Amino acid sequence: MADGKTFKKPRRPYEKERLDVELKLVGEYGPRCKELLRVQYFPIRIRNNACNLLTFDKKNPRRIFEGEALLRRMFCYNLLDEIQNKLDYVLALTVENFLECRL
Fold first, then answer.
1. Which of 9, 11, 45, 84 could form a disulfide with 89 if both were Cys (CB 3.0 to 4.6 A apart)?
2. pLDDT tens digits, 17-73
């Protein structure tokens, strides 16, 4: 996983709405440009993994094993509480949650 992509360049680099949102996030949480791109890409990857796992049956060993690993990782990052132990909570995570964790 260390050799994979860590961020994704925006499709439209000078889109006003996106730049306004990024400026607000930079002002509130203080990440640098490439760091903000990384933080924006991370929840997308996590949500995609959770969506793929939710397509499997609840008794599927892959869903159980990888789902528990994903939830454990979210607990370690302090993004989820112990009572939020379902993959549905992972889908609700936003960029702000990851930036709050960073502070």
1. 84
2. 989 988 998 888 888 888 888 888 888 899 999 999 999 999 999 999 999 999 999
Alpha helix locations (H) across the chain? Answer: 16-29, 33-54, 61-76, 87-91, 95-102
CA distance 47 to 92: 8
Token pair recorded at residue 42: 């991370």
Cα dist from 81 to 38, 90, 94, whole Å: 23, 11, 15
CB distance 66 to 72 below 8 Å:
no
The answer to whether the pTM exceeds 0.90 is no
- Coil, helix or strand at residue 58: coil
